[in-house]
Fold each of these.
Amino acid sequence: MKGVVFNLLFVFAVLVVVSEGLIESYPKTEYSKGAKVTLYANKLTSSDYFVPYGYYDFPFCRNEPLVKQKENIGQKMSGDDITESPYAINALEDVECAVLNSYVPNCDYYSQDQLQRFVDLINKQYKVLWFLDNLPGGERRSFIGPNGEMQEMYYLGYDLGSANRDPEFPDVISINNHASITVVYNKKEDSDDVYIVGVVIEPKSVQYNFEMWNKTRLNNCVWDVFNAQPVNPIEGGTTILWTYSVKWEENQNIQWSQRWDKYIGNADSQIHWFSFVNGLVILGFLTVVVVFIFVRKIRADFTMDGEIEEVGWKLIYGDVFRPPKWPNLFSAFVGAGIHILVTSTIILILSVFGFINPSNRGSILTTSLSSFVLLSAFAGYFSERTLKIVHGSRWKRVAFFTILAFSGTSFVIYFIVNMALHARNSSAALSAGTFTWVFVVWFFVPLILVFVGVIIAIKKYEYTPPARVNQIPRQIPEQRWYVSQWIVIPIGGILPFAIVFIEFFFIENYWWRGAIDSMAFDIVTLLMMIIVCIEVSVILCYFQLCSEDYHWWWRSFLVTGSSGVYMFLYSILFFVSKTEASGVSVVVYFGYMLITSWGFFLVTGTIGFLASFSFINRLMTRIPID
């Protein structure tokens, strides 16, 4: 055990270095007056339709040729397509109503088909995501903080356009062809140089007069609700004038290290605290029950002189370690569950301590993939350990089952999702070459490491149960309805999911809406979830043994693992109540949610089994056997 802990710490240290090496941090950039500041266009996303598109997959004004940033695998899977834009922005120089069409040729006329593409995006409430100095442009909104004071935060992106909700003009759809960009900056001490600490974008839709077309600057860009730029598809197409304004706004209260704070979702901190208190209440209740079982019930099962009354769980000590059905599959599930749990814990720790942060776009997906691959030996090691506990012998089969348990199933689901994204020409669809690379890294490299872990466990680990298994299985008495597996298993998953469902709501809400959330609460929630799984498993396992039912292996896994089913059911509820998605978006959403719920099933099920096994192992050692 000490060796395993040492290896875990060593791998953690390696992952810290790897995470910093794979995801290069964005350096602090200082700008002198007049210095060029490049605006990058990224992608179009919608909170209701989960298919992102590259910004320049649509006919916006662009540089020729396009200059793109190099992207990591996490950015590619997220649909990032970061490209230099033609917007001319210079440090500390305000711009009023610059006409982009005046120095970008061939971006003013739009055909009927092109207009229809814009209309489709606007009807689906797509947002535009830009970057300036690695900060995403967003809309500034205010909220009342926990102390009652007004605070502000930036919501990523701005609306591409708007559809008229007035029933008298149901078909009027306008596009935001003017962007008012506010660059928030702070001055460097003892210097006139500045660094950027915020980017706010206020979009407008303005229909300009024809005499304005040949000008590079306009006197003003007056927005009028009755004078918006329509994009309704008409025969012969139409022309659109693109304009922008830039305002530099000083704010000495925001330091470089704090510039991401306004992007991270802190408006809901009170609900996070409510989730934390909710978890503590459930945890406290279960802890009282467990203490009662250990201190009162189990101690009462032993007489004062150490003699044991032959009733209840004590009658099945010769059958309690009888191997379960499908031991190879069971061992593979346990190994895969430990693998996911260790990987998730490391990712959360790296996030909380700042090794993974929003400034490194795609870092969480890239580091998660790297960590999962590097830690695959854990899956093989613990699946083989479990195989020895259940008296199995087909270690090669277990190794293949282990890699298929999560890596295989998740890859098949992701393949379907990727094909669906390709069907819509999404920027999140991986090319054939990239997808092949992901397949090799996600499947074949872990397969090798799983076999390494299995071989280590074969040589290093042996298990002898504290009680011999009788040759003839004991007959299990008829069970009462309330201890039936059809009752216990669904009930057992409720409390572990109750611990995480509020945080899961925020994760899902921020994930699909492209926002950023703090993970500080997530690691506490994970810890409480682990403890609740342990306590639920021990309580229900004790009652099962008291009813003289020794088929506890799979039940201990499924009792807490059923919380994964509740997670998927909740994702259905979220989809129905919070989105308006259809078509390919349904495949994308439920594909990712199925992977998440299946991983949660394996993790919680594994925790439940390990808790029950430790409990039974300790309990049976107290029974004197002749």
Amino acid sequence: MLKRSTDIKFILKNAPYLKNKRLQINGFVASLRKLKDHFFIHVVDGTTSSHIQCIVSTELHLKKKSLQQYGIQRGCAANFTGLLRISEHPQQEYEMIIEDFEVFNNTDKTVDAINHVKQGNSWQQLRSVPHFRAINQSYQSVIRVRNVCMDAFHRYYQSNSFTRIDTPIITSNNCESACVPFQVDVAPFQKNSSFFSKPAFLNVSAQFHLESMLPFSQVYTISPAFRAEASVSRRHLAEFWMVEAEMAFLHTLQQLTSEVERCIKYVVRETTNLSLEDLHYIEKSFKRSRDQLPSISNRGGMQYLEDILSKPWPRITFSDASKLFHTTSKLDDFSREEELQIVAEHDSLPVFITEFPANAKPFYMKRNSSNSENSESFDLIFPDIAEVAGGSLRVDNIADLTSIEVPVDLDWYINLRNRGSVPHGGYGVGFDRLVQFIAGLNSIADTIPFPRQPGLGFFLRGGVDSPHISNDPGIYVTRIKPDGAAGIDGRMKEGDKILEINGVSVAAVPHNETVSLFLKSGEEVKLLIEPGAEQKALERLSHTSSSSVQKTSIFSTKLFFTSVIISSVVAGVFLYKKMKLK
């Protein structure tokens, strides 16, 4: 039976009322140090970025350790019982004097997991161990911000008479015709290889299904979306979350953009107000890890967010925005760099770009009544991120819809107008991008627990990672685990000089060469340069036995130290010549 305990967030918030009371907490040991006759332990439980200090006497620790294989150590899970008192140390207001504790399932490998994700590691390092990074307190802060942001969207819609609709993940339509969808099929070993009567895909957008729910007047969904775009960037994921809404009786684009601005401002304000502690912790973590500070921090942090919320967001038509670039060619869209330049021209506030050329937008977007070459559409561009939201008024007249070339298998969508429709419009917000903006993160892959991008591994059956192999050259770091399974640990692009793995710096090597080195943990690491044959290499590595790994360890070690010695000699000669010239 789970012991009743009080979460740390509640204790710290209500500490004045809980002083001198006996409390019980469940948590994880973030750090510990011994001073004279006591252990000073920082305990966290994921409810807040703050810790509570627990003081355990050496006598109590030895008594408990004699009953268990391992005592208290960094990273272990434990239950603590003790009195809450005012701390004598200036770094914390309150602390617990522990009378009893119990350690759960502690092993000699517990500290190893902590070393993967210790505070001060770069965010890129954390991405290489997604199954461990929940231990990292900075990453916990990101997930809490994400949680608050999700909740804020739900509260906004529920308090404004929207009905939540659970739209399907598997669908037969591709709402965004310009995107490449993931096709769904049964596993090859299944007898029934034609499970669906027609091609099926993972959801790209829930818009069409939401439009069929317009008898509820205002509907929304927050659901995953999937796009098979071979893009590895700090703004793209293959699996991401979309906030989508459709509203009946919407007549003008101004009404739509005003609703979007009102919604997103509410969400950003609520998220920042309820996540101040976590947002400050995230900002500090960038400084600790010496990562490049996110642009939001450079712009002034929380004050910058407040400026965005207090000022109206500018609108500019596509035609007027195009004039900023003085080009003679006719544009039908903007690059990311151009979008950010438009934002910079408007005091770095989010900007609505409206009335895009109709031929550059999907068929369902209503055309402008005064200029049929333009659509009643918008993109919402955020500083540093670029597009965060997009939407339009929808074609609601059957005559207008049948005069357009509609994709096949959308008879049901046309029938929605056949039976009488209503003026309506809708939009979609890239949820992960909005979290990226609020938290000030450099990469969208840090906003989601298990990011899916081309080239990244997945946890699959048998323990072998099977990455999607992209066409661009790059260096993959492949670990040979003791059981012989291969797994992607990290990636370097061509031109990168150094990659740090488990504290070991590895130099980049020329094309089509392989370098091995032996880590302290006993795991061999190989650098594979991608000329297009990585899959075969991974398959070959996955069948490598433990004995073959051991046979190569001596050669790997010699190769590593030889390369270090040669590099040192070359560097010494170069410095000597440079000093001699002076």
